[in-house]
User: What shape does this take?
Amino acid sequence: MKDIDKIIDKSLEQKRAITVKMLKQGFFFKQIEDLLNVSSHFIEKWRSLYNKQGAKCFPVGYKGSEGYLDEKQKQEIYKFINAKSHCHIEELISIIEERYSVVFKLIISPHLNFRYSVSVRSRFPFFYYGG
Assistant: This one.
């Protein structure tokens, strides 16, 4: 069970590892479902995977996609943003599209208003190459 304890510290993998640990400590499915707010299918899936693969089954496999700007281009964008106290998202998108031929794919959300400006310390939105 020491291998499970190492995983519990990582928040994205925590619920998976705790589920298996609780099973090993004698908790019933219903108790785990109620305490962790998970389904019996979730419990069975991670018990089965743990029995086959051990603790290496818990980490999230998603690594993200490769960026479209190289390090020099990113630094140029950081300089552009840092030269301003605020930068409107539309302006930043326009600069990146014009200079680097990167086209943004924006997901429209009712909780997102593009009228807001981006603080100097904000992260860039996700984008993809549309060339």
Q: What stands out?
A: The mean pLDDT is 75.
